[in-house]
Amino acid sequence: METRFTTVSSKGQIVIPAELRAQLGINPGTRIAIQKQDKHLILQPITEQFIDSLMGCCKGAGLVETREREHQDDE
Fold first, then answer.
1. If I label 55, which of 42, 45, 61, 65 is the partner at 20 to 30 A Cα–Cα?
2. Number of domains in the chain
3. Residue 16's pLDDT is what?
4. Are 19 and 4 spatial neighbours (Cβ–Cβ below 8 Å)?
């Protein structure tokens, strides 16, 4: 994994390098989920491919119950 660096602006914004945006299908307006894991931030672009990958992952459980279970797992 190649490490890239960017700087946080005074507004808390960062720039994702163009090459990574292209590889991940991040276009203007793409929503990004941000998770904190220990001392790391994980950015997940919410693309159609990501949404398609979720099909069936919550089978048998409602969205609210699934989110509550994930929240408890994080604690």
1. 42
2. 1
3. 95
4. no
